[in-house]
Write a structure and sequence with these properties.
The chain has one domain: Rhopdopsin 7-helix transmembrane proteins, CATH 1.20.1070. Helices cover about 85% and strands about 5% of the residues. It has a two-stranded antiparallel ribbon. With about 240 residues, it is mainly alpha-helical.
């Protein structure tokens, strides 16, 4: 009897949770997709302006916007289609499962890397070293982005090996414990932990360097003003002597 009671108690709760999840997906996913697409398209339109094409930092954000657009398409849009059509090929098509998560992982890594590079670009631009400021050029940014995208594509190759579809469980996940460890490690290090740490560190260093530059410029202004005042005073004294 206890087993029957627990079964009848759990089943309605599970059904309500499942219905709530489906309702949230049907309402929330289109809203998030629409807002995300609008944001990405506006960013791309802004960074495509001629004045932005010569700005190295804008080029990094432009590349990051395209990567985010790929993330929305292969992540949220694909998930929304599966939810609305009640047909998810990820759960029974192994090739589709691998390709989808490969593109999604590579796009996420590229997006984070481009934002980190934008922070590095602004940090080097504040440097007193001419050699470091040479990094902040449009031609250099394009080359660095090409190398970054290629590196992220190579780093994401593990997805093609460890991911697989499981029709019985209706899942597309790493097929082994080693694969799950690799997937978790790569996502934590290169998608969450390291980018957040680098962006925070570079942002703090940019603020510190700007303050140092402001102090240096302030000292230079005081020195120039003092020199000008002293020169003007000497000139006035000499003129007074000549007049006398």
């Amino acid at each position: 009897m206890n087993n029957n009671i627990s079964t009848t108690t759990i089943d309605p709760a599970a059904a309500r949770l499942n219905a709530a999840r489906i309702g949230i997906q049907h309402i929330g996913q289109p809203i998030l997709l629409t807002l995300g697409m609008i944001g990405c398209i506006l960013n791309i339109a802004i960074f495509r302006r001629s004045s932005m094409r010569i700005n190295s930092c804008a080029i990094y954000f432009h590349a990051s916007s395209w990567a985010n657009l790929f993330c929305l398409t292969w992540g949220l849009f694909i998930s929304m289609l599966a939810s609305f059509t009640n047909n998810n090929p990820l759960t029974y098509n192994s090739a589709y499962c691998k390709i989808r998560y490969y593109i999604l992982t590579g796009s996420q890594l590229s997006s984070r890397a481009c934002v980190v590079l934008a922070c590095l670009d602004r940090f080097l631009l504040c440097s007193l070293s001419v050699r470091q400021r040479l990094f902040c050029r449009a031609s250099v940014a394009i080359k660095v982005i090409s190398i970054t995208i290629f590196s992220c594509a190579c780093l994401s190759i593990y997805v093609l090996i460890v991911y697989d579809s499981f029709p019985q469980q209706r899942l597309c996940v790493p097929s082994s414990a080693a694969g799950r460890i690799i997937d978790t490690t790569v996502l934590f290090l290169f998608n969450f932990g390291t980018p957040a740490l680098l962006m925070s560190t570079l942002s703090g260093m940019i603020i510190w360097r700007l303050k140092q530059n402001a102090k240096r410029i302030g000292h230079q202004r005081v020195s120039v003003l003092y020199t000008f005042t002293l020169t003007h005073l000497c000139h006035s004294i000499c003129c007074n002597r000549d007049c006398n």
